[in-house]
Amino acid sequence: MSRDQQVALGVRLAAISAAVPPRLSLPGVVVVPPELQQVIAAAVPGLLTDVRVAVGDRVQAGQVLARISSPQLVELQHALASAITQRELARDTFERDQRLFGEGLIAQVRLRASQASLAQADAQLAERRLQLRLAGMPEAPAPGAALRAQATIVAPTAGIVIEAGAANGQRVDAATALFRIARGSQVWLELQAPPERAAAIAIGDPVEWPQRGVQARVSAIGSAVNSGQTVTIRARLDAGADRVRPGETVQAQVRLRLPARAQWRVPAAALAQLQGRSVVFAGQGESFRVVRAIEHGRDDDGVMVEAALVATDRVVVSGVPGLKALASEAQP
Question: Is residue 277 part of a domain?
Fold first, then answer.
């Protein structure tokens, strides 16, 4: 084919290279493993005041995150005071019945009844104290002291705040999630891959985020397609965890395994279908030939193929339809 014919058909050539492990560029996000996340919720309904932390803040165990004002706190303190009184009465009754039973003045069944009442009073007192502690008041007011309507919400563990749904002046219901804290420094990469790309990924494939010096390995591959029509690929970090933050978006590269039969890397545009087979049009100068190409994986802009090519070959990447027509006419 002369140069003029090549120009007329829009033929453009590109070099080939030796096959390399394909690399898939996938978007994703840095996440904290679920077992290392701690959710802090409101124990009682009320009004949030004095919110002290935001996303990204590092906190210590016991540190005050916010304060909450709630009428229910007063009710809990009143219930605790009542439980203390009932427990004291039950204890006095039991001690009196012990003395009377020792003197033979009452039956044993009465002693057992007062003992059961004391046990019930102890259980109710423990319950009231736990309710108040969960509401953010670890210490009940002293007898005779004024009841308080405000409690503190504290961090149960040290870590980094990765979610904060609390704001000053916000009214919340009981069990409303306010903060999420990440414990430790372990993070994962959660990448999203189209199903056809995910099929080429295997557990253990290396993952890199070169811009941040992050290295990881695929540890899990989702078994279902999510709402975005992608498959979740999870990678566990081997290096660089100290250079990323939870919630940060990433553009990572997954290095796939190279099949032993893959020989050459050709541009994706060079592949064509001719009589039901994948082929490339290889040429040198004005001579072209049809070469069967068996695909063995692809990356973002190249395909690894098994084909009877030589290193000096160039493949057609533009004007392929015209060459297909000529090749079809030349077939017997």
Answer: yes
Query: Do 165 and 64 fall within a single domain?
Result: yes
**In whole angstroms, what is the distance from residue 156 CA to residue 39 CA?**
9
- CATH number of the CATH domain containing 101: 1.10.287
Phi and psi at residue 85, in whole multiples of 5°? -65, -45
Q: Judge contact between 59 and 159, C-beta under 8 A.
A: yes
CA-to-CA distance for 237 and 245, rounded, in angstroms? 13
User: Residue 160 falls within a domain, yes or no?
Assistant: yes
Residue 193 lies in a domain: yes
Can you read off the two tokens belonging to residue 153?
């919400």
**Bridging pattern class, strands 177-182 and 214-221:** unpaired
- What CA–CA distance (Å, rounded) separates 292 from 273? 10
Please count the structural domains in the chain. 4
Encode pLDDT of 301-313 as tens digits. Answer: 788 999 999 888 8
Per the CB < 8 A criterion, the answer to whether 237 and 209 are in contact is: no
Query: Are 173 and 214 in a shared domain?
Result: no
- Kindly report the CATH number assigned to the domain that includes residue 285: 2.40.420.20
Residue with tokens 């039901």: 276
- pLDDT per residue over 174-197, tens digit each? 889 999 998 877 889 999 999 988
Whether residue 100 is found in the same domain as residue 75 = yes
Domain that holds residue 105: 71-134
Mean pLDDT by 10 residues, the chain (332 residues): 75 87 89 89 92 91 93 88 93 95 91 95 93 78 74 90 90 92 86 90 92 92 90 92 86 86 89 88 81 85 88 87 74 55
Measured in residues, the chain has a length of 332
Output the pTM of the full model.
Answer: 0.59
Q: Is 140 part of any domain?
A: no
59 three-class SS: strand
What would the two tokens of residue 283 be?
């040429």
